[in-house]
Amino acid sequence: MFTVYTNQPYNSTLHLLKKCRNSRDLNQIHARILTSGLIKNSSLTSKIILNFASSSHQPLVEFSRYIFFSQQKTNCNPFLWNLIIKSFSHGVDPEQAILVFISMLSQGSVYPDTFSFSLVLKACSRLELIKEGLQIHCLILKGEFGSNVFLQNSLINLYLKCGCIEFARLMFDKMLKRDSVSWNLMIDGYVKNDMMENALEVFHRMPIEDQNLITWNSMISGYSKFEDGFEFAWGLFNKMPERDLVSWNSMINGCLKCGKLGIAGDLFNLMPERDSISWASMLDGYAKFGDIDKARNLFDQIPDSRRDTVTWNAMIDGYIHNGCSKEALELFHEMWKGSSLVPDQATLAMALSAIAELGYISEGASIHDYIERKGLDLNGKLGVAVIDMYSKCGSINNAMWVFEKLERKNVDHWNSMINGLAIHGLGDLAFDLLMEMERVSIKPDDITFIGVLNACAHSGMVKEGLICFELMRRVYGLSPKLQHYGCIVDLLGRAGFLKCARNFIEEMPIEPNDVIWRTLLSSCMKHENFGMGIEVADNLIDLDSRKPSSYVLLSNIYAGSGMWDDVNRVRMMMKDRNIRKVPGCSWIELDGNVHEFVIGDTSHPEFREIYSVLDKLCPFNS
Questions:
Q1: Which residue has better confidence, 175 or 13?
Q2: Which of 283, 292, 230 is closest to 255 using CA atoms?
Q3: How many other C-beta atoms lie within 10 A of the C-beta of residue 432?
Q4: What does the alpha-carbon distance between residue 504 and residue 502 come to, in Å, rounded to a whole number?
Q5: CB of 14 within 8 A of CB of 51?
Q6: pLDDT (tens digit, 9 = 90+) per residue, 380-398?
Q7: Per-residue pLDDT tens over the stretch 495-535
């Protein structure tokens, strides 16, 4: 708490304001300013705005705004207006910057300058408001600021952010004078839109004296994304007059995207210095190439100064990508409890993903409780992860509770909930959610329809499933993908319409893969149509001879028909081709501990007692 004396000069007031860190301190000083009459001192109020409109402490920023707006009608200083506009355009509420700019125009006694226009264009760029941006462009031309390079660059940036690359190029071509920012903006715009020929054309026209690290890095990142552009990017990298961390990281990232893991590793070893992005890129590269052990070895080599949330997330994600959910969760706990780092939303979402795969619902509930206590936002990907975790861990009611509680739901939340209902065979509710999406104007995407079609298939809702397939094509204009065709095959097959499913496959406009044929084969097994099943299985083995499930299904079909010689023939075929069936796995969570079992398992410390109980329950197995 501060002691404020009425006879203090306003310099002391400013000094006290600088020490404020919360609303209570500010309210005390504000009250004294009002009662002492210092609020009428224009010199003091101007200095408050000048000193605190750009403060890193939000209460001070809000106080400076309050002071400004209380004297708005008499304030004719464009510099103060610009400070307030900037506090919004560069802050969390850029829309307010536009409203303050409109008030500035309405004032009549103060006219925006170059800086004012650049700030409001910044706000429009962040919000991607092309209509408002065009209106401001007209004001700039009317105010005879049209030839200002700084504003022209701001307009190019606006048009690029709004996806109007032709407008940006038109603006660029009309410029009488350009600086390095102009050239780099245009090159970067083309690179981000994968228009590399246009980017190269601008690059070749760019004066050498204007080319800088930003220029070279932009070109390298653009070309290195494509396999046929990698050699060109490599040539640019070697020609660079100087390199920075971005140059090295861009080239390494390009190598990894083009499958050149060895070259990426060589570059990584040659780097004069590395940041967390360098380490994370290599971790991600090794993980995506399936070498998770090498990724972990590299992770263990990261210096403590570089081991930040980005690198931990890369390693955790690598484990999940390689099906090592248990290791991912262990690493998450090591980060959370064994380091000074606080997991961010991406970390928590990945941990929830691992928990969903493992079925560790008690751990998932603990993380959800942590999220609630910290007041973290569930309206984004984190909310999707929580819904998905509860659904996959068998608690569909909790998933529904989280979903209903969300204030703002995007299509990903709806998809997660629909997929959860599909897992639990609640086709009616999944179909109702699709209808609800239409009511609240959320446009479904292809993932939505995969979820609804799966739900219909698991619930025997053939009519509703076929309606969804037609809605997808005719109403929402979405082209069905292989997964959607697979869902229809599953829908028809589960319901026993095997001939319809077979005809549907044969009439598909795209080539069916092994998953679609295996789906039909499973339906043949279920409905004991062994004739069609044998034919499908033979075709499936010809299509992909390395998948053990195809052989197992064919063997089961022969066994179901009593064709034991053929059963032995299939098993010998598997043996000759060195194909082994991956054993199934079951697990149960008891008192917070998860116990995992496979067939014939003797690894559990109490396996003898477990088998003894099983023998009593199922004496025919003895």
A1: 175
A2: 230
A3: 13
A4: 5
A5: yes
A6: 899 999 999 999 999 999 9
A7: 999 999 999 999 999 988 888 988 998 898 888 888 888 88
pLDDT of residue 396: 96
**Residue 119 burial (CB count, 10 A):** 27
28 C-beta neighbours (distance < 10 Å), count: 16
Torsions phi, psi of 590, nearest 5?
A: -135, 120
Cβ atoms of residues 89 and 122 within 8 Å? yes
Average pLDDT of the residues in 302-316: 92
Q: Kindly report the backbone phi and psi dihedral angles of residue 432, in degrees, each rounded to the nearest multiple of 5, phi listed first.
A: -65, -40
d(CA 199, CA 219): 8
Report which secondary-structure segment, H or E, holds 82.
Answer: helix 78-89
Q: How much is the pLDDT for 603?
A: 66
Of the pLDDT bands very low, low, confident and very high (cuts 50, 70, 90), residue 622 is: very low
The Cα-based distances of 252 to 193, 280, 301 in angstroms read: 21, 11, 18
Task: Return the structure tokens found at 47.
Answer: 């200095």
List the structure tokens of 322: 């390689």
Which residue, among 304, 375, 377, 318, has the nearest Cα to 350 in the 3D structure?
A: 318
Beta pairing partners, 587: 596
Find where tokens 């861009």 sit.
250
Q: Tell the burial category of 295 from Cβ atoms under 10 Å away from its Cβ (0-12, 13-18, 19+).
A: buried
Amino acid identity at 343: P
Q: Which two tokens mark 178?
A: 């350009």
Give 343's DSSP letter.
Answer: P
CB 121 within 8 Å of CB 155: yes
Measured between alpha carbons, how far is 503 from 481 in angstroms, rounded to an integer?
18
Rounded CA-CA distance 384/404 in Å is 12
What does the block give as tokens for 363? Answer: 């751990």
Indicate the pTM of the whole model: 0.74
DSSP 345-358: HHHHHHHHHHHHHH
Q: Which of 319, 329, 332 is nearest to 284 (CA)?
A: 319
The answer to whether 329 and 361 are in contact (CB under 8 A) is: no
Task: Report the candidate in 51, 43, 44 with the shortest Cα–Cα distance to residue 20.
Answer: 51
Q: Which of 95, 96, 37, 35 is nearest to 65 (CA)?
A: 96
Tokens of 584: 């199934």
For residue 584, give the amino acid letter: G
Nearest Cα to Cα of residue 151 among 116, 98, 114: 114
Average predicted confidence (pLDDT) for the chain: 86
**Token representation of residue 167:** 């407008």
Do 608 and 614 touch, CB atoms closer than 8 A?
A: no
Choose among 289, 280, 223: nearest CA to 249.
280
- Output DSSP code: residue 73: G
DSSP annotation of 601: -
pLDDT in tens, 46-70: 777 766 677 777 777 777 787 787 7
DSSP 241-283: S---HHHHHHHHHHHHHTT-HHHHHHHHHH-SS--HHHHHHHH
| CA 296 remoteness from chain centre | 24
Q: Distance (Å, rounded) from C-alpha 510 to C-alpha 493?
A: 19
Helix axes 482-494, 498-506, angle to 10 degrees: 160
- Classify strands 585-590 and 593-598 as parallel, antiparallel or unpaired: antiparallel
Name which of 46, 42, 90 is nearest 64 in CA terms. 46
Contact 546, 516 (CB under 8 A): no
